[in-house]
């Protein structure tokens, strides 16, 4: 049960971010300052965890060697990465920065409840990208899932009630761009040096993201004293709940519950973000929109449930009478 709760808590942490960003904008802070403090916090916390993990592994290895145990040393999990592997991990981390930039920028034009719904379009965008790259037509369950997601999105976004003309086109474009960028991150991150320890994979990916951000938005807030204002509070919260906690909790829980179940539990990010935007930011979310959120969650969970059922049916022995 603790592994399920770990993944669930990690996904809920992601759902908090949009509300914190809107509150930071309300205090007059700019996009580069918000994302910059988030990544710097995540960078420091990620490397502290990575170094602490290495330290613990070395201590265990020393204890094992003193007891003259012939089994493999725990330090073997920390095979030294080459610079090529480090650069691959840093490159794989750059889409997260693009995602954060365009997603947070969309919050200036559209409500947080709508922005998170647009971000969740990465589910079908990922399928589309994979289908194009593999030149393979999606199966029937995928088409059904896309249909459900499309219908749920129309309801959850409030398009059927308010009409699309009342929504900022720039905000919608930025939200969809964030979904595309996040899809690329999901596709690339899993293929980048999978043999590396999760703590160091996360640390190097955050490092790559931070370098890209510093190029796009030079961190002047570190030198003009702005970092010691309320910006530091927002940065600590965003870095903790966005760049540190979710990767750690996912690394703990996903290997034990499997990627399929993790994908289902990860969808809790959507209702958490919508709920917080309604309670904290006082955004209006109608009953019909909540119904749309439920439909989107069903669409996200459907293919994973189908895979789990298929595997269970294959593993069940068939007895002839």
From TrEMBL:
Q: Which GO terms describe its cellular component?
A: membrane
Q: How does it sit in the membrane?
A: Multi-pass membrane protein
Its keywords, alphabetically, are: Membrane, Transmembrane, Transmembrane helix
**Domain of life of the organism in this record?**
Bacteria
SUPFAM superfamilies, alphabetized: Multidrug resistance efflux transporter EmrE
Record-stated family: Belongs to the EamA transporter family.
| Name of the protein described by the UniProt record | Threonine/homoserine efflux transporter RhtA
**Species this chain originates from:** Paenibacillus polysaccharolyticus
Upper taxonomic classification of the species? Bacteria, Bacillati, Bacillota, Bacilli, Bacillales
């Amino acid at each position: 049960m603790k592994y399920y709760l770990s993944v669930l808590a990690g996904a809920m942490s992601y759902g908090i971010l949009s509300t914190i960003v809107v509150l930071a904008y309300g205090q007059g802070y700019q996009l580069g300052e918000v994302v910059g403090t988030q990544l710097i916090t995540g960078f420091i916390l990620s490397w502290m965890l990575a170094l602490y993990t290495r330290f613990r592994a070395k201590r265990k290895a020393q204890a094992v060697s003193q007891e003259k145990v012939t089994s493999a040393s725990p330090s073997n999990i920390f095979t030294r990465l080459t610079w090529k592997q480090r650069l691959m991990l840093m490159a794989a981390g750059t889409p997260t920065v693009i995602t954060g930039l365009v997603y947070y920028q969309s919050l200036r034009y559209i409500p947080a409840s709508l922005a998170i719904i647009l971000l969740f379009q990465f589910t079908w965008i990922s399928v589309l990208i994979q289908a194009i790259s593999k030149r393979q037509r999606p199966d029937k369950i995928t088409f059904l899932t896309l249909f459900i997601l499309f219908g749920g999105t129309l309801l959850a976004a409030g398009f059927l009630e308010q009409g699309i003309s009342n929504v900022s086109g720039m905000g919608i474009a930025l939200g969809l761009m964030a979904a595309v960028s996040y899809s690329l991150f999901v596709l690339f991150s899993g293929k980048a040096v999978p043999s590396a320890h999760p703590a160091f994979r996360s640390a190097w990916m955050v490092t790559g993201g931070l370098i890209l951000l510093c190029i796009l938005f030079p961190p002047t807030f570190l030198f003009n004293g702005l970092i010691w204002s309320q910006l530091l509070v927002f940065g600590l919260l965003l870095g903790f709940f966005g760049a540190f906690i979710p990767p750690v909790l996912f690394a703990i829980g996903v290997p034990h519950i499997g990627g399929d179940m993790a994908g289902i539990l990860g969808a809790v990010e959507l209702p958490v973000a919508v709920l917080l935007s309604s309670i904290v930011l006082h955004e209006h979310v109608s009953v019909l929109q909540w119904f749309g959120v439920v439909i989107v969650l069903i669409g996200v969970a459907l293919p994973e449930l189908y895979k789990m059922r298929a595997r269970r049916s294959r593993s069940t022995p068939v007895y002839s009478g």
